[in-house]
User: Which sequence fits this backbone?
């Protein structure tokens, strides 16, 4: 393991261990911490040995012998206070489920809090609308499909992969390839919307919410261009699309 990654992993392990052990939830012990961290380490090391390249439209990787979806869900579950968590506005989720069942598209314009958002979203809906929890497609940026520590979690989600404007020129010689990936992703999104019954989650702010000058976390502003892009795609779709 590279020295820089080792330092990051120690911090990651210590923070995770404190969170799990501090929860006082039955079963949240050192054994659970070790098991979850070992599974993450195995998957991260695999990305160094045999890196996975995400296509424009990535479908979650589940096989009879291993589920990257369940791998991610187990990690997020160990950090979730289920006893004090509630699903707000149940009627809205019921409405979205009915619209999807009718072949309509539903687009979620969301603020992005943490990289665990997909896992939290899936746990939130699994008991009431499991198909939404499992079949939602997230619009994913550069880091979650290139960082070895993020990739194993991303492999368990359905993703439309895009390169943000902020990172198109990070490596100038890759700009053309990134733009081609974005073009293919837009085509994949349009085809999926044309079929109908698509649930898409996008953070139009372009990233996670950050603290303001006073150190307070507030919802970041949506990028009007990202919102307009989704409006344009859904307006051209052959099926009805509903933004939420």
Assistant:
């Amino acid at each position: 393991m590279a020295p820089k990654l080792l330092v990051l992993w120690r911090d990651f392990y210590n923070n995770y261990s404190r969170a799990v052990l501090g929860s006082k939830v039955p079963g949240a012990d050192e054994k659970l911490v070790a098991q979850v961290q070992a599974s993450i380490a195995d998957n991260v090391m695999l990305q160094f040995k045999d890196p996975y390249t995400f296509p424009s439209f990535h479908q979650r990787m589940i096989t009879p012998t291993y589920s990257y979806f369940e791998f991610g869900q187990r990690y997020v579950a160990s950090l979730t206070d289920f006893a004090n968590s509630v699903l707000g506005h149940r009627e809205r989720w019921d409405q979205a489920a009915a619209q999807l069942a009718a072949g309509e598209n539903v687009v979620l314009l969301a603020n992005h809090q943490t990289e665990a958002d997909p896992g939290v979203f899936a746990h939130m809906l699994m008991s009431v609308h499991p198909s939404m929890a499992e079949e939602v497609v997230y619009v994913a940026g550069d880091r979650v499909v290139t960082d070895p520590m993020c990739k194993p979690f991303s492999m368990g989600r359905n993703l439309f992969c895009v390169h943000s404007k902020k990172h198109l020129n990070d490596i100038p010689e890759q700009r053309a390839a990134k733009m081609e990936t974005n073009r293919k992703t837009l085509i994949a999104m349009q085809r999926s919307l044309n079929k109908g019954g698509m649930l898409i989650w996008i953070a139009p702010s372009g990233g996670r919410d950050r603290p303001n000058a006073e150190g307070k976390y507030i919802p970041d502003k949506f990028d009007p261009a990202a919102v307009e892009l989704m409006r344009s795609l859904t307006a051209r779709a052959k099926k009805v699309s509903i933004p939420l």
Notes: The CA atoms of residues 89 and 214 lie 31 Å apart.
